[in-house]
Design brief:
The complex is a heterodimer of chains A (264) and B (427).
Chain A: E1 9-18, E2 21-31, E3 36-40, H1 47-54, E4 62-67, E5 70-71, H2 77-82, E6 85-87, H3 100-106, H4 116-121, H5 124-143, H6 159-171, E7 177-181, H7 189-205, E8 209-213, H8 217-223, E9 226-231, E10 234-239, H9 241-246, H10 248-263
Parallel strand pairs in A: 3-8, 3-9, 6-7, 7-8
Antiparallel strand pairs in A: 1-2, 1-4, 4-5, 9-10
Chain B: H1 19-40, H2 45-54, H3 57-79, H4 88-101, E1 102-103, E2 110-113, E3 123-126, H5 128-150, H6 155-175, E4 197-203, E5 206-212, H7 217-240, H8 242-252, H9 254-259, H10 264-289, H11 300-313, H12 318-347, H13 357-371, H14 380-387, H15 391-396, H16 406-410, H17 423-426
Parallel strand pairs in B: 2-3
Antiparallel strand pairs in B: 1-3, 4-5
Helix pairs in contact in B: 1-7, 3-7, 3-10, 3-11, 3-12, 4-5, 4-6, 4-10, 5-10, 7-8, 7-10, 8-10, 11-12
Classes of the chains: A alpha/beta (264), B mainly alpha (427).
Domain ABC transporter (chain A): 9-257
Keywords (chain A): ATP-binding, Nucleotide-binding, Transport
Protein name (chain A): ABC transporter ATP-binding protein
C-alpha cells in the first residue's frame, strides 16, 4: 500500500466503556483500501463490541473513526450505513417476515428518493426507481447465489442462505467497507473453504474493503491479508497471517484462555 | 390475500390484488342501494323497520368513522409495530378542529371562508373540505409533536407514554373552558352545532349539490365511504413502497433496520403522522355526523376498542382491519342491544345486555388469542409467524439450531477432550 492511498477505514484509539467495564481500550486499526482484514481474539476479547462501536451502535468513550477520509465518530447507525459502512450480524438479524428481495430493498432505503406523495401517486419516477431497485435486488441475490429465493420469507431460508442473504443485504448499501461478523459460524469445512473465494470475489467485483471477525483459523489464515488480534479489549498483535501464526503473545492468549477453560 | 377461496372463473378473472378492493366497492354500493331503496323507494314497512333496527344508516356511518380511525391506528401498530394506546387523542383533535373552524363558537372573531354558516353569524366559518385538510394537518403535527419525545422509547414504555397522551389530550378538551381566561373547548358542553357540509346530496329528487343537514345520512354515508377508500388506497400504496418497507423492517428488527440505513426516528414519526392524519379525518367525519363535538366521547376505552379492532381484524391487513372495525362497532352499537331486546322479548326476561358489552368483548378477545391469534383476516406474513414456530421459538423449546454440522465433529483435529475452543488447537 502506498502512503498516498487513503485507508478505507481508520479507527484511532477506540475506547468503549460500559459503566466500570472497559470493553475496548485504545485500539488503533486500519483497513487499507481494497484490503481484507481480520479481527481475531478469544471469546470476550471485545471484537463484536469493536464492530458495534465502529458502526455507531455504541457510543465511543474516546477515539475517532474515519471512513474514507470522513470523520464518522458519533454519527447514528443509519448515517454510518449511508456513508458506506455495511455489516452483517453474528447471530443473523434478517427481517424474518419480509421476502429475501424485500430484505435487500430495505438496505437501499438511503439510495431511494421517492417520498410519501410519490409513492401514493405512483409517479413515473417512483415506478422507475422501484423497477431499478427490483433489478438490483435480484442481481445481488444472484451474486451471493440465492437468486431463486427472492420471493421467500427470510425466516424460511436455510441457515446458509440466511447468511448469504445478510451479505446481499449489506451489499445493497453500496458500501465502501463491509464488516462481516463471524460469517462462517455454523458452516461446515467445505462451505468455509468456498467462503474464502467468495470474500475475494466480493472484494474485487464490488470494489470494497472487507473487515471480518472470524473464529475459524483456517479461514482467517487463507482469507486475510492482514490480521489484528484483540485480547481483553486490547490490541495484542497485528501483522500478516505469517506473523500472527508465530506470534508468542497470540499463542499465549489463545492457549492460555483455552487452558483455563479446560481446567475449569 | 390467499384467504380468498380460489374459485375457477369463466371468461374473465380479476387479478388477485384487485379482489378485495372490488369487493369493498361492491359491498359499499350494495349498502348504498339498500339505503336509497329503504329511504325513497316503495318498500314494505316491515322491511324498512327491520333495516332500521339491525343495520341503521346512522350506526353504519358511525362504524365507518371507527373504520377510518382503526385504519389510522393500523399504520402505527400494524405496519410499523409501534404500540399506541392513546389513539383517541387524534379522533378528538380532528373533531375539535371541525368544532373550532365550522361553528359560531369563537364569538370574538368573525371569519367566513366559503363557509356554510349563516352569513351574519360571528365565529369561524370555514368550508368543510378546507377544514378536513386542516384537521389532517393539525393531527399530523400533533402526531409528530407527541411522537418526537416518546418514540425513543421501546414497546412497553412507548405504550405507557402514548396512554398518557391519550388521557391528557381529552382531559384538556374536557377542562379547556378556562385556560388562563380563554375558553378553548367550551368544557363539558362541547361545541355544537357545526356548520352544514356542502356536498353532493342524494334524495328523492335525485342527485344535487347542496348543504347537508343533520339527517342527510345517505349523503354522509357516501362521503364516509369515499374517506375510507382514500385511506385504504393510501395505506396500500405506502405499504408497497420505500416507506412501507422501512416500517416493516423496523417492526421486524429495529437495530438491523438502522444498521441498514433506515433512519429510525424519521420513519417512526412518519408512521405516527400518517396514522394521525387518518385519525383526524375520522374525527372530522364524526363531528359532521353528530353535528358538533362533545368531550365525553373521547375516553380511554375508545383507544382500547380501536386497538382491539386492529388486532382482532388482522394487524397490518387493511381489509382485516375494516372487517374488525365494522364488526366490533356494529356489535357495540346495534348487535348487542338489539339481540338483547330480542332475547328479552322471547324469553320474557329483563337483562341489560349492553352493560355486558365489555364482558363479552373481553371473552371474545381471550378466545381469539387462544384460537386465532392472527386475527380474522391477517396479513399473509403475520399468519406465517403465528402459525409455525420460528427459529427463535424452536430454540426456546430446546432445539439447538446453532450446533455444528455432524461432519465437523468427525474431524480428528478438533476432537480434544475438555477443549471447548477450536481455534486454540489450530493456530
Amino acid at each position: 500500500m502506498t502512503a498516498a492511498v487513503q485507508p478505507a477505514l481508520q479507527a484511532e484509539q477506540i475506547k468503549v466503556q460500559f459503566g466500570g467495564l472497559i470493553a475496548v481500550n485504545g485500539v488503533d486499526f486500519t483497513v487499507p483500501k481494497g484490503g481484507v482484514v481480520s479481527l481475531i481474539g478469544p471469546n470476550g476479547a471485545g471484537k463484536t463490541t469493536f464492530f458495534n462501536a465502529l458502526t455507531g451502535l455504541y457510543k465511543l468513550a474516546a477515539g475517532r473513526v474515519v471512513l474514507s477520509g470522513r470523520d464518522i465518530t458519533g454519527l447514528p447507525p443509519h448515517k454510518v450505513a449511508d456513508l458506506g459502512m455495511a455489516r452483517t450480524f453474528q447471530n443473523i438479524r434478517l427481517f424474518g417476515l419480509m421476502t429475501a428481495e424485500e430484505n435487500v430493498k430495505v438496505a437501499m432505503h438511503s439510495h431511494l428518493k421517492s417520498g410519501i406523495f410519490g409513492t401514493v401517486l405512483r409517479t413515473p419516477r417512483q415506478r422507475r426507481e422501484e423497477r431499478a431497485a427490483h433489478d438490483t435486488a435480484l442481481e445481488l441475490l444472484d451474486f451471493v447465489g440465492i437468486g431463486k429465493t427472492a420471493g421467500e420469507y427470510a425466516r424460511n431460508l436455510s441457515y446458509g442462505d440466511q447468511r448469504r442473504l445478510e451479505v446481499a443485504r449489506a451489499l445493497a448499501l453500496r458500501p465502501k467497507v463491509l464488516l462481516l461478523d463471524e460469517p462462517t459460524a455454523g458452516m461446515n469445512p467445505r462451505e468455509s473453504a468456498q467462503f474464502t473465494e467468495f470474500v475475494h470475489r466480493v472484494r474485487s467485483e464490488k470494489d470494497l474493503s472487507i473487515l471480518l471477525i472470524e473464529h475459524d483459523m483456517s479461514v482467517v489464515m487463507r482469507v486475510s491479508e492482514h490480521i489484528t488480534v484483540l485480547d481483553r479489549g486490547q490490541k495484542i498483535a497485528e501483522g500478516t497471517p505469517e506473523d500472527i501464526r508465530t506470534n508468542d503473545r497470540v499463542i499465549e492468549a489463545y492457549l492460555g484462555s483455552a487452558a483455563k477453560e479446560g481446567g475449569a | 390475500m390467499s384467504v380468498m377461496p380460489q374459485k375457477p372463473r369463466k371468461g374473465f378473472s380479476l387479478p388477485h390484488s384487485a379482489r378485495w378492493p372490488v369487493g369493498f366497492l361492491i359491498a359499499a354500493l350494495a349498502l348504498f342501494a339498500l339505503y336509497y331503496f329503504v329511504y325513497y323507494g316503495p318498500v314494505d314497512p316491515d322491511f324498512k323497520a327491520w333495516v332500521q333496527r339491525w343495520l341503521s344508516i346512522a350506526s353504519m356511518n358511525e362504524s365507518l368513522v371507527w373504520v377510518m380511525c382503526a385504519l389510522g391506528l393500523n399504520v402505527v401498530v400494524g405496519y410499523a409495530g409501534l404500540l399506541d394506546l392513546g389513539f383517541v387523542a387524534f379522533w378528538a383533535i380532528g373533531g375539535y378542529t371541525v368544532g373550532w373552524f365550522m361553528s359560531a363558537f369563537f364569538q370574538q372573531w368573525n371569519v367566513h371562508v366559503l363557509g356554510t354558516g349563516p352569513e351574519t353569524a360571528r365565529g369561524l366559518h370555514f368550508n368543510f373540505w378546507f377544514v378536513l385538510i386542516l384537521a389532517g394537518l393539525i393531527c399530523a403535527a400533533f402526531g409528530v409533536l407527541i411522537g418526537a419525545p416518546t418514540l425513543r422509547l421501546r414497546s412497553d414504555y412507548l405504550a405507557l407514554v402514548t396512554l398518557g397522551f391519550g388521557e391528557i389530550i381529552p382531559q384538556i378538551f374536557y377542562n379547556g373552558d378556562d385556560l388562563w381566561g380563554f375558553n378553548l373547548t367550551n368544557g363539558t358542553k362541547g361545541i355544537l352545532p357545526a356548520d352544514p357540509v356542502p356536498a353532493v346530496a342524494f334524495d328523492k329528487e335525485g342527485v344535487g349539490f347542496r348543504d347537508l343537514g343533520v339527517f342527510d345520512h345517505l349523503s354522509k354515508y357516501v362521503i364516509f365511504v369515499v374517506f375510507v377508500a382514500v385511506i385504504v388506497f393510501v395505506s396500500l400504496r405506502l405499504r408497497e413502497g420505500r416507506l412501507g418497507r422501512a416500517w416493516l423492517a423496523i417492526r421486524e428488527d429495529e437495530l438491523a433496520a438502522s444498521a441498514m440505513g433506515v433512519p429510525l426516528m424519521r420513519t417512526k414519526l412518519s408512521a405516527y403522522g400518517i396514522g394521525a392524519v387518518a385519525g383526524g379525518i375520522g374525527g372530522a367525519a364524526f363531528a359532521i355526523l353528530i353535528n358538533g363535538v362533545l368531550p365525553d366521547r373521547f375516553n380511554f376505552s375508545i383507544s382500547i376498542i380501536l386497538l382491539a379492532m386492529v388486532v382482532l381484524g388482522g394487524m397490518g391487513n387493511v381489509w382485516g382491519v375494516i372487517i374488525g372495525a365494522l364488526l366490533i362497532s356494529w356489535v357495540n352499537s346495534t348487535g348487542l342491544p338489539q339481540a338483547g331486546n330480542a332475547i328479552n322479548e322471547t324469553f320474557d326476561t329483563n337483562i341489560n345486555f349492553p352493560s355486558w358489552s365489555f364482558l363479552i368483548f373481553g371473552a371474545t378477545l381471550v378466545l381469539m388469542m387462544l384460537f386465532r391469534r392472527e386475527g380474522i383476516l391477517p396479513e399473509a406474513r403475520t399468519r406465517l409467524v403465528l402459525r409455525e414456530p420460528g427459529r427463535t421459538e424452536a430454540e426456546a423449546l430446546g432445539a439447538d439450531l446453532e450446533a455444528p454440522a455432524p461432519e465437523l465433529d468427525a474431524l480428528p483435529e478438533i476432537e480434544v477432550a475438555g477443549d471447548s475452543t477450536n481455534e486454540g488447537k489450530r493456530s
